[in-house]
Amino acid sequence: MLKVCLDTNILISGVLFAGKPAEIVSLAFNKKFELILSQIILNELEKNLLHKFDYSYRNTKKLVNRLLQISDLYEPTGQVNVIVGNRGDNLVLETAVIGGAKYLVTGDHKDLLPLKFYRNVRIIEAWYFLEVIK
To answer: pTM to 2 decimals?
Structure first.
């Protein structure tokens, strides 16, 4: 099965708004691909939902627990350092690499998308991933 790592921005957009990220999150919940995550991604998701978007504590916990049920969790150790000054993005990238993801889906136009590839991981936007998976 296709292994895919979703960046936090895709998860947040997919949960809070309609559109392509929401389609991707729905595909993940329907197990149309193998979801690769890390506790770091889940922690960032939880923090942002609670503090930036005023998402309820109960719904945030339910979402994180549901994601834990459908994903394979990998823990980056900080070995990847290709994005200068952005530890968080490096850890997301490392999660994709150690999880064996073919794709890292992100909306990060500043740091991640310009890389295009890192090791065996292709870094793509949501719309492109939906083309790939169809």
So the answer is: 0.94
